[in-house]
Automatic annotation (TrEMBL):
Name assigned to this protein: DUF4395 domain-containing protein
Domain DUF4395 positions: 87-210
Transmembrane segments: 29-46, 90-115, 135-156, 176-201
InterPro entries the record matches: DUF4395
KW Transmembrane (keyword) present: yes
Species the sequence originates in: Halothiobacillus neapolitanus (strain ATCC 23641 / DSM 15147 / CIP 104769 / NCIMB 8539 / c2) (Thiobacillus neapolitanus)
Highest rank taxon of the organism: Bacteria
Keywords for this protein: Membrane, Transmembrane, Transmembrane helix
Lineage: Bacteria, Pseudomonadati, Pseudomonadota, Gammaproteobacteria, Chromatiales
Length: 241
């Protein structure tokens, strides 16, 4: 347990390159999958849920019917307004988790990293470099940030306009495209691929950038390196020395 708290999912937090346990990464992806699923239900409710709130105490028969013979009732109804305060907090937490996984010191602030490392402690460790995973989490952070702005357009517009000293964004209307919330379902797909199939979309982006020469470093995750064997040899050399 102490070793888990000390190293979390890192093989050696001070080593270069930094390697993390992909088994724990997949467990964590399964945990965080709850966030886009929750946001998906929110969008479903907003799109297909009731848009009117009816005061049941005011419903009464008008003693009249329409042309089809349907009884006409009268009631006080108000247009439903949506409060995304809880969803905003959930998205901010998701953004924190995406950023926390990118660096060693911030990883120690993440409850899901600690829990996933603990759950994976007795399973076979699959050591993968951290750098490709940063692309995956950066992609997730970008989509979460867009969703945050979509659900809080006025607040974000006020911040931008205050910083700029002039009106750059309207603070009374939605200026983002309505396809933005669909990114929630993209997040569900990406995290499901990571948690269930071990397929990391961000890692593939890193691999492509290496192939294109954008990154000069090699893609260590593509070389099928046996890090356990390397660690064993180093331990043997240290013992012989």
């Amino acid at each position: 347990m102490w070793q888990t708290i000390k190293n979390l999912w890192f093989q050696d937090p001070s080593a270069k390159p930094i390697l993390i346990n992909d088994t724990a990464v997949r467990i964590r992806a399964g945990m965080l999958l709850a966030i886009p699923i929750y946001m998906g239900f929110t969008l479903w409710s907003a799109r297909f849920g009731g848009h009117w709130i009816v005061d049941g105490d005011t419903i009464h028969d008008t003693l009249d019917t329409d042309w089809d013979g349907h009884i006409i009732y009268s009631a006080n109804v108000i247009r439903r307004t949506w409060d995304y305060t809880i969803q905003t907090y959930v998205l901010f937490y998701g953004l924190f988790e995406m950023i926390a996984g990118m660096f060693v010191w911030t990883s120690r602030l993440s409850p899901t990293i600690l829990l996933s490392s603990f759950l994976a402690r007795k399973q076979h460790a699959l050591w993968k470099p951290l750098t490709p995973k940063r692309y995956a989490w950066s992609l997730g952070a970008f989509m979460i940030a867009l969703c945050l702005i979509f659900f809080n357009p006025s607040t974000f517009a006020d911040w931008v306009n205050a910083i700029a000293g002039r009106t750059l964004l309207p603070d009374t209307s939605q200026y983002l495209s309505y396809w933005i919330p669909s990114l929630v379902f993209v997040c569900v797909a990406f995290m499901w691929l990571e948690a269930v199939l071990g397929f990391c979309v961000g890692c593939k982006i890193h691999w492509l950038l290496v192939k294109l020469g954008v990154h000069k470093e090699e893609c260590l995750a593509c070389n099928n390196i046996d890090w356990d064997e390397i660690a064993r040899r180093k331990a043997e050399q240290a013992g012989n020395g």
